[in-house]
Amino acid sequence: MKTSIIYHSYSGNTRGVAEQIQKACDGDLIEVRSKEYSSRLTAYTIGCYRAMKGMCDRIEPEIIDVSSYDCMVIGTPVWAGRATPAINAAVAALAGCEGKRAIIYATCGKNAPETTPILKKALEARGVTVAGEFVFDRAGVRDPGRINAMIASIKATGPE
């Protein structure tokens, strides 16, 4: 099964989880970078406002072609209880995603009750079936058992 691991990471936690997935599943890492912020301060102040509003950033890569993949894994940090504007833009930038399956995950300080449901809804609007949702708080990103449970779910997810 060919897997793409699409993620945005600002502090490194989401990247760390993505790298563990890549190592276990031999998938392709696709890091989404925002072109919007010039400093850490603007990333969190302006970025959190944009996240609350469900807005999209200008990103690199501008188009993410997933037509050759069987499964997508999409990871986001949680800003103001939501996916980052870079991940919102990544969902909008997906090409060839219709009919694909995805596993989504979020990394956060404490909790993220709205993040994965909103991300799931956006993906479903693009014709993607979300086969699993995971949220990792500060302890969760360091818990091999929780990460391995997600990896097992990814390995079990393939084309319908």
Write up what this structure looks like.
The strands form 3 sheets. Strands 1, 2, 6, 7, 9 and 10 form a 6-stranded mixed beta sheet that branches. A two-stranded antiparallel sheet has the order 3-4. It starts with a strand and ends with a helix. With 160 residues, it is an alpha/beta fold. The protein has one domain (3-156): Flavodoxin domain (Rossmann fold, 3-Layer(aba) Sandwich), CATH 3.40.50. The protein has helices spanning 13-25, 40-52, 85-93, 115-125, 144-156; strands at residues 3-7, 28-31, 33-34, 59-60, 64-65, 71-79, 82-83, 94-95, 101-107, 129-136. The mean pLDDT is 93. The chain is globular and about 40 Å long. Helix content is 37%, strand content 27%. The protein is built from 5 helices and 10 strands; from the N terminus they run E-H-E-E-H-E-E-E-E-H-E-E-H-E-H.
CATH topology: Rossmann fold
Total number of domains: 1
CATH class: Alpha Beta
Q: Which CATH architecture is right? A: 3-Layer(aba) Sandwich
What does the main sheet amount to?
Answer: 6 strands, mixed
What average pLDDT do the residues reach? 93
> Count of DSSP E strands?
10
Approximate helicity band: 25-40%
Low-confidence stretches: none
CATH superfamily grouping: Flavodoxin domain
Taken as a percent bin, the fraction of beta residues is 25-35%
Gap between N and C termini, in Å? 12 Å
Shape by Cα distribution: globular
Order of helices and strands: EHEEHEEEEHEEHEH
